[in-house]
Design a protein that fits this description.
The chain has helices at about 65-85, 100-110, 125-130, 140-145, 145-150, 155-160, 185-190, 200-210, 225-230, 265-280, 295-300, 320-325, 365-375, 380-385, 435-445, 465-480, 490-505, 505-520, and strands at about 55-60, 85-95, 115-120, 160, 165, 170, 180-185, 215-220, 240, 250-255, 260, 305-310, 335, 345, 355, 395, 400-405, 450. The chain is of the alpha/beta class and about 525 residues long.
């Protein structure tokens, strides 16, 4: 998925929705499953001379921890790209704490980015594509990225299309994400709190931390992400229009085929009472609305005891990190994947969750696509952009595992946004995986079902004004309610609903329902 800061929740309408018991057969997947073929061809497919060009790249990633090593890395990488494709890359690091605004500013600036991170939901891919922020790639892909073009099935290219045109290049890995509650297991044991197997156990844990650990806050998530990442697994609803990390404005009820707005589901208001109760009990700070912290990092640095916004299996190594950095202090992490507390399901991943787009005024789209195509065929080069420099940032063990245990201090690799180039065939197991990795993956694989809305793209062209207005209403009235920071839940909810209705909620819902009906009919 994304770099660490891209986990922050975006404040948009109905910051939560649910996937549920979809009537689909379960299929086994792994953390890196995909349909990509296993062949690896290190040829760009081009002969003759290529004029030298410098590609400009923009992605969401904090600046490197070690600028000297990063400088050497980019010099080495560009030396290779210059030799093999007569190109180099100039990468602009976009600080992640305010990635939404940074990204919008980058696009509005008119800078000629040849390689630009793009994604549905958290980076508003569909919206920017429909506004011509990106260059259509339909005619360029077969010629300049033939390997990727042939490798990905038509259904994937359809999922990457907006208004019938392709604006982004998907990755070669579906992946999967199981949102989880991450917490200090050592503190649970210290205060003899119950093992966490349900939301009720989470409540008991947070209260135990509040009562017994004065120097640490129970949780510290950006805008209090509790609502957006926990209750979603307690209903059968399926999310429709992803806003951010499987958080939705509208949901589909597979029991009767209805399309509902999040705020009008009975579960929404009922959960608001719990959010109010938890906020009043001090389970998070009253300043969470202005926070830009990813709560997981607050756990890792000792500020908080728990976060509701961990993502597995992608960040399972946080447990190993805590053991390495704080094991002598007795620290220990554990995870509770929300689906474990309810006989529910985990939706399969998507190759479009991270993509690469080309800005509409980019000067070198052809070379940019050539680079993408070349990387996805060349395992050695892919290793470099994904794991760094062997012997400096990692060591490759005899069994093909990426080992970072013996690298120098400050040599952890974070110089390149490799999620834009994910490839299941090249991906390698990391030696710092959680000790319970296999057990975790078995639990996930046993619950995976297909996402019936995989590839669905909501066309907002006829409702864009209303949809934007609903997002503004949520920022002003929804998020404080969802964080429990209101004096009266009933009054706050009623005000929120009234404002949403006035902003065009009914019109938007009707349009969403129309498009969903057409989509589902096309799949029969």
């Amino acid at each position: 998925m994304r770099e660490r800061a891209k986990k922050l929740t975006v404040g948009l309408l109905g910051v939560a929705m649910v996937f549920g018991s979809v009537a689909c057969s379960s299929k086994e997947v792994t953390e890196s499953s995909t349909k990509a073929p296993t062949e690896s061809k290190a040829s760009s497919g081009y002969t003759g001379d290529l004029d030298y060009v410098k590609l400009r790249m923009y992605a969401i990633s904090d600046a490197p921890n070690n600028t000297d090593l990063a400088k050497k890395y980019w010099e080495k990488l560009n030396e290779r790209l210059k030799k093999e494709l007569n190109t180099t890359i100039e990468f602009t690091y976009a600080a992640g704490n305010d990635y939404k605004n940074n990204y919008a500013l980058a696009i509005a600036s008119g800078e000629k980015y040849d390689l630009m991170q793009a994604a549905p939901g958290w980076l508003d891919y569909e919206s920017y594509a429909s506004k011509n922020a990106f260059k259509p790639l339909d005619d360029l892909l077969p010629k300049y990225a033939p390997y990727i073009w042939k490798t990905l099935p038509k259904t994937t290219w359809d999922a990457a299309s907006v208004k019938g045109k392709i604006f982004g290049v998907p990755v070669l890995e579906t992946g999967i994400t199981a949102p989880a509650f991450v917490y200090r297991e050592d503190l649970r044991k210290k205060h003899n709190l119950p093992e966490i197997k349900s939301m009720d156990d989470i409540e008991t844990y947070l209260q135990g931390i509040k009562d017994n650990e004065s120097g640490i806050v129970p949780s510290d998530d950006y805008q209090s992400q509790v609502y957006g990442t926990s209750w979603i697994y307690t209903t059968p609803f399926v999310g429709i229009d992803e806003v951010h990390d499987r958080i939705y404005n509208f949901v589909y009820d597979p029991r009767d085929g209805q399309v509902l707005s999040v705020i009008e589901t009975p579960e929404f208001k009922n959960y608001m009472y719990k959010m109010k109760d938890w906020a009043d009990r001090g389970f998070w700070s009253s300043s969470v609305l202005t926070s830009t912290n990813w709560g997981v990092f607050q756990v890792l640095n000792g500020v908080a005891a728990a976060s509701f916004n961990e993502q597995l299996p992608g960040y399972n190594n946080h447990a190993t990190q805590v053991e390495r950095e704080h094991g002598t202090e007795g620290w220990e992490l554990n995870y509770f994947m929300y689906f474990e507390g309810n006989p529910d399901s985990v939706l399969s991943g998507s190759t479009t969750r991270n993509m690469t787009a080309i800005s509409t005024n980019a000067e070198n789209p052809e070379r940019a696509l050539m680079v993408l195509d070349y990387i996805q065929q060349n395992e050695d080069l892919w290793n470099t952009i994904t794991y760094g420099t062997e012997g400096i940032n990692y060591n490759l063990t005899a069994d093909g595992t990426i080992d970072t245990a013996n690298i120098a201090e400050g040599a952890a690799f974070n110089y390149f946004p490799s999620s834009m180039f994910a490839n299941a065939n090249f991906k390698k197991r990391k030696s710092d995986a959680w000790v319970n990795y296999e057990k975790m993956m078995e639990k996930i694989n046993n619950k995976v079902v297909p996402d019936i809305f995989e590839g669905f793209v909501l066309d907002k062209s006829s409702i864009e004004i209303e949809y934007t207005a609903l997002n503004d209403v949520n920022s002003q009235y929804g998020i404080p309610l969802e964080a429990g920071l209101v004096s009266d839940v009933d009054k706050a909810y009623q005000k929120y609903l009234e404002k949403a209705k006035a902003a065009g909620l009914d019109k938007v819902r009707a349009e969403v329902e129309k498009q969903v009906s057409a989509w589902l009919a096309s799949k029969k």
